[in-house]
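Assess this one:
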Amino acid sequence: MITPYWKLEDLWNMLSSVLLPILVLLSLNGVHVAGFLETPQSNVVAGDITYLQNQLNDEKAKRMLLENEIKMLKQEFSEMKASRATPVGFKARLSETLTVSQPNEKIVYKDVLANIGECYNKTNGVFQAKVNGTYLFSVVACSASSHFIALNIVRNGNVIGNVLAGDNALSDCGTEVTVTSMTVGDRVWVERQRGDVLYALYWNSFSGVMV
């Protein structure tokens, strides 16, 4: 038995005879051989770039969302800090007997004992908020003997509390305390609901404080 013996030169000649016609055919058909061989690698690189670009866009969107949340938190913190740094409180009372008869007539408390924050106007009897927050208001109403008086606490035209005082023989007092949320510019005042006389006692008062 004779063992085949292939010389390196013979193998090269055989491979050349097979590959050369294929390369010639590809060239004749307009195919760039080097580009043809590199195409799979190019596709992989392009895919990686697209993936990384998508990841980058996702990270940008997340960062924008976080920046918006941080901005909102900073604004809330600033408002909270401002409200805490600006104390608000007042108390005013009547110094003389007041007769009221008109529907929804405002009660003007001209004797101001305290006006921290300068939010109460003794000229028109209106408290106007300068800071957002929660406020507590109190009204004491005292009627003359044989008379009665009913008052409303009003916020921006809406009744948020009322107080009644009256007795057939004696002077009488009633008290109302209410809590409400207010934003800058909101107004609170006291007005007549029914009745006619507020007796000249210092107990007739209107007060408020931010809590």
Notes: The two ends are 112 Å apart (CA to CA). The mean pLDDT is 83.
